[in-house]
Q: What sequence folds into this?
């Protein structure tokens, strides 16, 4: 018996050490997977243009490696089982790698410190302090987190950081120190609801995941529906959803035959609801299904199948990669291919956001003459005005405003044979949403980017 | 209170949900009767198998049946491995300790699944079985054959394994071993073989359930692994003993959960249904006695 | 028989026996004091703010694992619902902190008492269940509480009993005590509270409740025969554990400033049990080890860029290890292994000194 005990103990100890060793050796790339789930479905098509694009156009001196003192930047991203946003800062890092290989910023390479968190407020606050005090970052670019903006916004304000992020929490859009490249759940849901209202639906059912901020998010669609004199029902579901059937039946019952069901969920949860609706035979029982921007992935289009062609209308905050053949889009695809090995979702809105944030940061940094300090870098970020990112409807501006919603115009896409295709071009989000009205009062309405 | 017509479709979906809970719950009780272990890793092992089946069929292009075979084989192998490695060491311990040990296995599997099948980049996976394509209509909603199969599997498990455990030699040997391993060994029962058979059976059951649940609920490691918590409600009401009571309790819980959906004031609390019913049920059942799960009652 | 046993128990109380502390006890006490002083004074100076915030979390969760270890190790009651109890404590503290201007220690006391009442309400009917049933019913209750929390949410400065306003554009942070507003100061504050809680448990263990719990864990039948009121002492254990966890919830509220229901999922109760077992349920140091495993290791791994999944796998392996080979956990096993290592090194050194000819090689 004792022999078996010690044998078992040795096995367990060995296994633990092996795992620890493997874990340590995988440091630096927090969520690399091996093979099975990582290649994207529709990633390889429409990259014919990308194969011939020279990525060196990302930097100012093609082919020249940057060797000066690094410019440290930081990002905080959620990475926990079920929710992982690391693709966004990883793509920003890929862009920075490209720039570093082609001249850097006046010869200085950019070093991006990515801190991951598991939606733990203490950890998120600690991550911010780590970035500032230990890693000595001079700017924050690429943060994407369910609650980071809420936790750290007063810290960034105190230190004078003007963050460029992909927002989710209310504070990403309602404070002076954060400007996002995306629209976030509220304004993206606005876009989806707006499209539905434009199709003259008789009722709107707005269903969202029960994560922080549901009241804030629902306020936008409610304002839009009220202005259009259309009744609206607000629902929330606990995630992860274990009983999608009842969710789908409830939504369809509440919407009625002339109504619309608009979803605001992460792709796996939205997929579960839509598939349940299809298996129950309910997809034709409402006039229209809509979804906020997280649904805008080819994964979803492929998994849904042809029954949803032209039936589901997804709000898209960023230019549809498959339908756009511009230098910027081709550069994005090329950089993703050459430098984006740690970006697991491939072509899609996550990596597009990372690309856009990095693009803006580099554009701002290149305007700095003199040392790269917290003051100079964040002043440069704040001074970005009417920048054509090539990925958004409008020109992007930071500015010295009390709130920031610089991306407030969107496309609508619909799945077609495994891909998301454009159903409607750039449309401004209505200023019936009071926050949009407030932003346009101080910042005006940005012009659309040249096509 | 909404009109009756609103409740009708929820009866159908409630039965489907009940079938899901029944599949998990009956599986847990069957395993408990056969091995003496409350196998809390049941959901995780099914999720692992389902994800492997998904990878084989969508990534490697293998035919559907090959994925299912792999799912069941992996689930069986991992469970057998666990049983052979840790079964004997824990055989003499309290059922509570044995159950907590399976929590250890659950955590290991959960971590491995999230590493290998990441949800980064907005990836959404789904597993569809060919039986999803056919069905019939009840109360204006479609019922797929998969849902029927899940419910039928629950019934078959209930009736079949109950009979197996009671009337066959192997089944009786399993029950004896779950009760007291040492005495069973002295009676001349080949304990190692019976034990292996019990664990392998567990694993295969978990794999099959995993495929069905991945289709019916979601192909997501977190959802499937912790679905077992809600299924425990039915298991608890049956006091880990009666497979039939587990089945019936699971159906009732599923029905009640979905029937609360159209009631606006209660709908956000409907996910509490399994927990509330389990708590009430246990407290009612134990009001005259102290309930303790000793080895003699297995 | 029972009279003799009870008389023995009473005779053994410290008031009756004049005992001088033994040398190992003195050494242990001085080591503990030195470590505590180091943790209180020196640690905040040496660590970066990132790790100071992490150590505050270690202090908070050490209290939670202390309470859980008390239930599991001293009384033999496995609770799979500790995260839910922590959430109740945090909720109560947050509500009081937003609604009143009471001093912080008073709020902590009140949060602890509210949680204690909740714990007793749960414990009272649940105590008719034993072993696996008790563990599973606590899991069910935790699941129910989690769903309720997801719907009512944590207070965020709103009005009404629930104190939640869903449409706020900017949520106010939960306040901290005025003397402990900065992160290092709040760390010291949480260490003090933790020391008080540990002292509370120590006082219980060394006196009558501790002996009663030990008797109950050994054999309920024998304890009953010895005249110990099992229900009363089990309830006392539940009450104490809930109180401590409630206070920990209050400290947590001030530490992280913002509370979300998604931070208290049912799975956390399972992980808490895993780390408590790994740390060791039979010693108070085990609770500290468990706190370090639960909060410090993830922070360390995050810093090194290692995925949190490896930690989940480690915890699973740890549970299996503890249950099969080392029931007393790391707190017991590591000193034992170190001692064994020390013996081994001693033997090797002696053999080396003797020279190669000395051992017949």
A:
């Amino acid at each position: 018996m004792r022999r078996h005990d010690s044998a078992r103990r040795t096995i367990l100890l060995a296994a633990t050490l092996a795992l620890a060793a493997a874990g340590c050796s995988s440091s630096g790339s927090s969520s690399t997977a091996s093979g099975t789930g990582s290649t994207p479905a529709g990633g390889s098509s429409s990259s014919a243009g990308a194969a011939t694009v020279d990525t060196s156009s990302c930097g100012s001196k093609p082919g020249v490696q940057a060797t000066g003192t690094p410019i440290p930047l930081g990002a905080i991203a959620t990475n926990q089982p079920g929710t992982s946003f690391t693709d966004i800062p990883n793509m920003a890092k890929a862009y920075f790698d490209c720039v570093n290989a082609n001249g850097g910023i006046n010869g200085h390479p950019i070093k991006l410190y990515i801190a991951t968190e598991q939606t733990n407020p203490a950890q998120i606050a600690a991550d911010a302090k780590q970035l500032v005090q230990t890693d000595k970052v001079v700017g924050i670019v690429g943060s994407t987190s369910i609650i980071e903006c809420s936790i750290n916004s007063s810290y960034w304000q105190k230190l004078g950081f003007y963050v460029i992020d992909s927002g989710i929490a209310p504070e990403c859009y309602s404070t002076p120190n954060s400007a996002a490249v995306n629209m976030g759940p509220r304004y993206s849901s606005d876009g989806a609801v707006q499209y539905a209202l434009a199709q003259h639906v008789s009722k709107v059912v707005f269903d969202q995941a029960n994560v922080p901020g549901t009241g804030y998010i629902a306020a936008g669609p409610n304002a839009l529906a009220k202005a259009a004199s259309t009744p609206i029902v607000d629902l929330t579901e606990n995630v992860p959803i274990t009983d999608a059937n009842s969710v789908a039946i409830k939504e369809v019952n509440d919407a009625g035959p002339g109504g619309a069901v608009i979803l605001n969920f992460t792709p796996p949860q939205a997929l579960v609801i839509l598939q349940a609706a299809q298996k129950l035979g309910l997809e034709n029982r409402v006039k229209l299904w809509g979804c906020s921007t997280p649904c805008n992935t080819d994964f979803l289009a492929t998994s849904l199948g042809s029954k949803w062609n032209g039936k589901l209308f997804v709000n898209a905050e960023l230019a549809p990669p498959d339908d756009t053949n511009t230098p910027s889009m081709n550069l994005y695809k090329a950089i993703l291919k050459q430098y984006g090995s740690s970006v697991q979702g491939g072509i899609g809105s996550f990596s597009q956001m990372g690309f856009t944030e990095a693009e803006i940061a580099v554009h701002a940094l290149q305007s700095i003459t003199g040392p790269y300090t917290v003051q100079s870098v964040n002043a440069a970020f704040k001074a970005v005005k009417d920048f054509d990112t090539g990925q958004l409807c409008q020109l992007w501006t930071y500015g010295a405003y009390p709130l920031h919603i610089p991306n407030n115009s969107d496309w609508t896409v619909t799945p077609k044979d495994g891909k998301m295709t454009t159903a409607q071009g750039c449309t401004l989000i209505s200023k019936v949403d009071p926050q949009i009205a407030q932003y346009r009062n101080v910042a005006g309405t940005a012009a659309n980017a040249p096509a | 209170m909404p009109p009756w017509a609103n409740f009708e479709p929820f009866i159908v979906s409630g039965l489907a949900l009940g079938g899901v809970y029944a599949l998990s719950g009956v599986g847990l009780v069957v395993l408990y009767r056969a091995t003496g272990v409350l196998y809390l890793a049941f959901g995780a092992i099914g999720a692992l198998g389902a994800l492997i089946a998904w990878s084989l069929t969508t990534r490697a292009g293998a035919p559907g049946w090959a994925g299912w075979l792999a799912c069941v084989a992996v689930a069986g192998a991992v469970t057998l491995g666990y049983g052979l490695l840790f079964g004997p060491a824990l055989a003499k311990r309290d059922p509570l300790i044995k159950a907590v040990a399976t929590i250890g296995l659950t955590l290991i599997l959960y971590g491995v699944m999230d590493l290998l099948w990441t949800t980064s980049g907005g990836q959404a996976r789904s597993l569809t079985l060919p039986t999803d394509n056919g069905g019939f209509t009840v109360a204006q909603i479609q019922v797929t054959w998969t849902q029927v199969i899940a419910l039928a599997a629950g019934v078959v498990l209930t009736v079949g394994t109950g009979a197996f455990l009671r009337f066959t030699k192997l089944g009786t040997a399993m029950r004896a071993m779950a009760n007291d391993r040492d005495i069973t060994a002295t009676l001349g029962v080949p304990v190692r073989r019976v034990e292996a058979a019990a664990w392998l059976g567990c694993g295969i059951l978990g794999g099959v359930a995993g495929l069905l649940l991945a289709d019916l609920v979601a192909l997501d490691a977190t959802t499937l692994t912790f679905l077992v918590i809600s299924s425990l409600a039915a298991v608890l009401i049956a006091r880990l003993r009666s497979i039939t009571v587990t089945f019936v309790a699971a159906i009732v819980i599923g029905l009640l959960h979905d029937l609360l959906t159209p009631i606006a004031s209660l709908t956000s609390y409907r996910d509490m249904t399994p927990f509330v019913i389990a708590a009430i049920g246990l407290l009612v059942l134990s009001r005259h006695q102290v309930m303790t799960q000793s080895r003699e009652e297995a | 028989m029972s009279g003799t046993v009870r008389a023995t128990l009473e005779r053994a109380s410290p008031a009756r026996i004049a005992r001088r502390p033994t040398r190992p006890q003195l050494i242990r006490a001085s080591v503990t004091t030195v470590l505590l002083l180091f943790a209180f004074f020196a640690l905040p100076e040496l660590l970066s703010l990132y790790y100071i915030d992490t150590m505050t979390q270690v202090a908070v969760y050490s209290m939670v694992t202390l309470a859980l270890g008390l239930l599991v190790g001293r009384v033999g009651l496995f609770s799979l619902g500790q995260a839910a109890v922590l959430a109740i404590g945090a909720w109560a503290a947050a509500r009081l902190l937003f609604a009143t201007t009471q001093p912080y220690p008073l709020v902590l006391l009140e949060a602890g008492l509210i949680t204690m009442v909740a714990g007793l309400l749960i414990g009272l009917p649940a105590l008719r269940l034993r072993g696996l049933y008790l563990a599973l019913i606590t899991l069910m209750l935790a699941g129910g509480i989690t769903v309720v929390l997801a719907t009512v949410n944590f207070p965020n400065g709103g009005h009404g009993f629930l104190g939640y306003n869903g449409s706020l554009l900017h949520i106010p942070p939960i306040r901290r005590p005025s003397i402990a507003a900065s992160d290092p100061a709040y760390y010291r504050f949480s260490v003090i509270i933790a020391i008080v809680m540990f002292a509370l448990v120590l006082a219980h263990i060394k006196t009558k409740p501790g002996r009663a719990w030990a008797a109950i864990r050994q054999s309920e039948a024998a304890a009953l025969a010895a005249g110990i009121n099992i229900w009363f002492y089990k309830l006392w254990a539940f009450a104490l554990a809930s109180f401590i966890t409630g206070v920990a919830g209050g400290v947590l509220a001030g530490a992280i400033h913002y509370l979300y229901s998604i931070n208290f999922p049912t799975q956390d109760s399972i992980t808490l049990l895993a780390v408590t077992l790994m740390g060791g349920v039979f010693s108070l140091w085990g609770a500290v080890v468990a706190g370090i495993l639960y909060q410090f290791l993830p922070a360390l791994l995050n810093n090194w860029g290692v995925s949190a999944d490896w930690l989940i796998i480690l915890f699973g392996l740890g549970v299996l290890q503890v249950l099969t080979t080392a029931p007393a956990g790391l707190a017991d096993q590591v000193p034992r292994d170190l001692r064994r290592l020390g013996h081994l090194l001693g033997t090797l050194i002696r053999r080396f000194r003797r020279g190669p000819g000395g051992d017949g090689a």
